[in-house]
Design goal:
The protein is of the alpha/beta class. The protein contains 25 helices and 14 strands. A hairpin with a 4-residue loop joins β11 and β12.
Length: 603
């Protein structure tokens, strides 16, 4: 059994009784031979805090402080924060060398960080300019500072700290990782923030910021971005970071960007869906005419209702087509993919049943499922917990409500309740059932029969539903809203009502419909602002066409813009392209995602 000496009594003044008990129980396993690396204060703590504290009691002077600093590291690692605070306070009263002071500061900041106080950790991290320290300490200092600034949302300061760390990085992996971090932060920064940093005295930071500004200048034009990157590399050939370009920039540099000179547009231009096909075509042509930045490709339109896909593919070969947009209908798309054997880079305007990765094909459509998924995210962000989905009892209603449910489950881990109505005549009954009024009335009737009394009682509605997502057109919505309002008891907070863009199927943008006031719905930006130049021009040219056709016109315009933007979206997964139909980004399986706006009926 270990003998308790005056040395252990000294330890108890620094560590808690719990740690002292650990010391007693573990004294039999203390190694007899001390390895040199165990006493290097700049390395991670490999032993227990008890081990280091006992070593400190066996030492004096500078070596004693070294052991205390290693003990502090171990205590933080063990999450013994109270004991860590005690030891930090004890060390602050001792005479420390510059290296020991730097280690004390770093570990104090790490402790405060682990307590969830990053700003206080930043305030307590301040190396003296007069210190002469090993590179390792400066590396740790700047990387920790960068991490803390990023945590508090101060991206410019985080960027500066990461770039300040670069000269002290020794390993290739560290340098590559550092450049990736810098680039990831630059991608998150706003244009005004980038401009402020462009002339910074730190040459590495200034050069990176200027490159990001250049690439933003050519958004949606990857060929110009590639040229700008290569020019930047030549102009900054002495920059040490150039040999450690982030992966996205390496892909841009190596990419063989080919501008298609001949494009095929596959749309229904006769018979069924010809009105939709013509509207998409008009949007595409308008975007082509509006483009003043580069030479436009030769464009050929093929009527998918007038020719078979085999005939169309044969004509495309004869015409030297290099890029395809369409088809629009799902069955035509399936036939085209088989007939073409994925020989052409294609932006399909629908999504096939099997949308797994297909060579040379991306997908872009006005997907109601994507809209429903965004509704789930929006409703969750608005702090609702118990949403109800009401939709028509058909294939469309079930498909879209299922998309909402999947996303809600993914976000919250809970299941969203669903209710379906057969037609307009059954709307009232559906609302009464889902809000519990039918069940409440049934209980009242049972009570009257049991008591054999004509008692007075009021139906009680459910109290748990705090949001309702309505997948309905304007006619259905004008009935659903008052039915829901009547179904809710006066003393119950009514649920917030949300709707899809189907509720805005008017002739001219967002009309004020009194019955719909207060309902928040999703819509593409083009339809939210009636003074939008493209919206105004569209309705001047086709005043008889409603919002549904306006959306297809926007789809056609964005399809043209995506010809050039798609390569950039494939290189930079975080890239967002501001289209007429919404903010566009690229998701899994090369499916273009469209982020919609939210607006209130009545605004």
């Amino acid at each position: 059994m270990c003998k308790i000496t005056h040395k252990l009594e000294a330890i108890s003044r620094i560590i808690s009784p719990i740690a002292l008990a650990l010391a007693l129980s573990s004294c039999m396993i203390i190694p007899s031979v001390l390895r040199t690396s165990q006493s290097d204060i700049t390395t991670p703590a490999l032993e227990s805090s008890t081990f280091y504290l006992l070593k400190a009691e066996d030492s004096t002077g500078k070596r004693k402080v070294d052991w205390y600093l290693l003990a502090l590291k171990a205590l933080i690692k063990e999450k013994q924060f109270v004991q860590s605070d005690v030891l930090i306070s004890h060390l602050s009263k001792l005479m420390l060398t510059q290296l020991q002071l730097s280690e004390w500061q770093l570990n104090r900041a790490k402790l405060i960080q682990q307590k969830g106080q990053p700003q206080i950790a930043i305030d307590n991290l301040n190396f003296s300019p007069s210190w002469q320290l090993p590179n390792l300490q400066y590396k740790r200092y700047y990387l920790l500072e960068a991490e803390l600034y990023q945590t508090v949302g101060n991206l410019p300061s985080s960027l500066l700290s990461y770039t300040e760390a670069y000269p002290y990085l020794a390993e290739t992996f560290e340098k590559e990782q550092n450049c990736e971090r810098v680039w990831a932060l630059l991608l998150q920064m706003k244009p005004n923030e980038l401009k402020e940093l462009a002339e910074h005295s730190n040459k590495i930071l200034s050069a990176w910021v200027k490159l990001m500004i250049l690439l933003h200048q050519y958004d949606g034009r990857p060929a110009e971005q590639q040229y700008a990157l290569n020019t930047w590399l030549i102009e900054n050939r002495g920059l040490p970071t150039n040999q450690y370009l982030p992966k996205n920039l390496k892909r841009l540099q190596a990419m063989n960007i080919i501008r298609p000179e001949r494009i095929a547009i596959l749309l229904p231009l006769s018979e069924q869906f010809s009105a939709q096909g013509e509207t998409i075509r008009n949007g595409f042509i308008q975007a082509l005419l509006d483009n003043k930045n580069s030479e436009n490709p030769a464009t050929m339109f093929y009527d998918t209702n007038a020719m078979s896909m085999t005939e169309i593919v044969s004509k495309m070969k004869s015409n030297g087509v290099q890029f395809v947009i369409g088809p629009l209908q799902k069955d035509k798309l399936d036939s085209f993919l088989i007939a073409s054997q994925h020989a052409y880079p294609t932006l399909a305007l629908n999504i096939p049943q099997d949308a797994t990765i297909k060579t040379n094909v991306c997908f872009f459509t006005l997907s109601p499922e994507q809209e429903a998924e965004q509704a789930a995210l929006h409703i969750a962000q608005n702090q609702h917990r118990y949403p109800l989905i009401i939709a028509e009892d058909n294939q469309f209603g079930h498909r879209v409500s299922e998309a909402f449910s999947r996303k809600w489950q993914e976000i919250t881990g809970h299941t969203a309740e669903k209710a379906f109505f057969k037609n307009l005549a059954t709307l009232h009954k559906t609302v009464q059932q889902v809000f519990g009024l039918t069940e409440s009335q049934s209980r009242i009737q049972q009570l009257r029969q049991i008591l054999d009394l004509d008692i007075e009682a009021e139906q009680r509605s459910r109290r748990d539903i705090d949001a309702v997502y309505l997948i309905a057109n304007t006619s259905e919505l004008t009935l659903l809203k008052p039915f829901i309002e009547v179904a809710i008891n006066p003393n119950v907070k009514p649920p917030k009502l949300y709707a899809s863009s189907r509720s805005n199927n008017r002739l001219n943008g967002v009309d004020k419909v009194g019955e719909l006031n207060g309902i928040e719905f999703s819509e593409m930006p083009l339809l939210v602002k009636k003074d939008h130049p493209i919206f105004v021009r569209f309705h001047q040219m086709w005043p008889e066409l409603g919002n549904g056709m306006t959306r297809l016109y926007a789809l056609g315009m964005d399809a043209y813009s995506l010809i050039e933007a798609l390569p950039q979206m494939q290189i930079f997964p975080e890239y967002r392209f501001e289209g007429q139909s919404g903010m566009l980004s690229l998701g899994d399986n090369c499916i273009v995602h469209r982020t919609v706006s939210w607006v209130m009926h009545g605004d």
